[in-house]
């Protein structure tokens, strides 16, 4: 058997170094040019981690976390001592304490690209309550068995802004109809405030536990478990573009589409 030395020659080492150098020259400028792409991945990981906690709760309790009903569908200061409870994020944090410290857990509650809400002091994020994720009110307190197509049912989406409030979007209004599956951006009438944090896409958590990036314009009310209904019914064909111009998506009402 030939047992000659199999070590790399100097020429081979130089070639490998040159190849690595060429690859770095290609990859590093791309990473610097598109820093948002890395934060998009972090955000996708965050919403998936929150989903894991939600499903752990659902497995133990047979329902998704519930949230108290408020006029605007939100639990303010969700994790502060005087916060309104129960709410989805407070439940998530409670199930995860003991597995990680509060500071690390809180970093999962918002997208790195989300802008702090500054338009009203009562909604500004705090160190204890800071989130940019919105949970589907159709699923809050509901059994997974009532969702007909979990792989297509969006359980959580992103807001462009981070606040101190755990908002349900969509949520049930005083008539029992669901509103605000989408919302016009306050700074741009031709854009959606939800699902548009990253360039042309948003990150979404689905009721089967997977998370993925989607173009906002591809989504419809049915993706949130909604069908036309209520006093000012929207249509099954509504998308965020139709919803934000010329009218606000919040003016349209829908009914939940759940199994009996």
Architecture overview:
It is a single chain. The protein is an alpha+beta fold and 260 residues long. It has one domain (35-256). It is 27% helix and 19% strand. The chain has five helices and 13 strands. It has helices spanning 10-33, 35-61, 88-96, 102-107, 240-244; strands spanning 74-76, 115-116, 131-135, 154-163, 165-167, 171-172, 178-179, 184-185, 188-192, 202-206, 211-214, 226-228, 254-256. Strands 2, 3, 4, 10 and 11 form a five-stranded mixed sheet that branches. A two-stranded antiparallel sheet has the order 1-5. Helix 2 packs across helix 3 (88-96). The longest helix has 27 residues, at 35-61.
Topology:
Layout: H1 10-33, H2 35-61, E1 74-76, H3 88-96, H4 102-107, E2 115-116, E3 131-135, E4 154-163, E5 165-167, E6 171-172, E7 178-179, E8 184-185, E9 188-192, E10 202-206, E11 211-214, E12 226-228, H5 240-244, E13 254-256
Parallel strand pairs: 2-4
Antiparallel strand pairs: 1-5, 3-4, 4-10, 6-7, 8-9, 10-11, 12-13
Helix pairs in contact: 2-3
């Amino acid at each position: 058997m030939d047992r000659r030395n199999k070590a790399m020659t100097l020429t081979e080492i130089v070639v490998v170094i040159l190849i690595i150098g060429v690859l770095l020259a290609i990859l590093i400028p791309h990473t610097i040019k598109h820093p948002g792409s890395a934060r998009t991945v972090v955000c996708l990981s965050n919403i998936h981690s929150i989903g894991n906690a939600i499903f752990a709760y659902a497995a133990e309790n047979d329902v998704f976390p519930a949230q108290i009903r408020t006029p605007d569908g939100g639990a303010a200061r969700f994790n502060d001592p005087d916060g309104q409870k129960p709410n989805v994020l407070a439940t998530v944090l409670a199930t995860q304490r003991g597995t990680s410290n509060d500071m690390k857990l809180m970093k999962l509650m918002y997208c790195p690209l989300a802008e702090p809400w500054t338009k009203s002091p009562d909604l500004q994020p705090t160190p204890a309550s800071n989130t940019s994720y919105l949970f589907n009110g159709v699923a809050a307190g509901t059994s997974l068995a009532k969702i007909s197509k979990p792989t297509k049912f969006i359980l959580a989406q992103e807001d462009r802004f981070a606040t101190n409030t755990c908002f349900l979007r969509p949520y049930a209004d005083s008539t029992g109809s669901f509103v605000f599956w989408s919302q016009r951006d306050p700074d741009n009438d031709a854009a959606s405030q939800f699902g548009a944090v990253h360039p042309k896409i948003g990150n979404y958590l689905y009721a089967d536990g997977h998370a993925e990036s989607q173009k906002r314009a591809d989504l419809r009310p049915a993706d949130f478990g909604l069908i036309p209904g209520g006093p000012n019914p929207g249509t099954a064909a509504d998308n965020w573009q139709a919803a934000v111009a010329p009218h606000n998506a919040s003016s349209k009402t829908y009914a939940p589409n759940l199994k009996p």
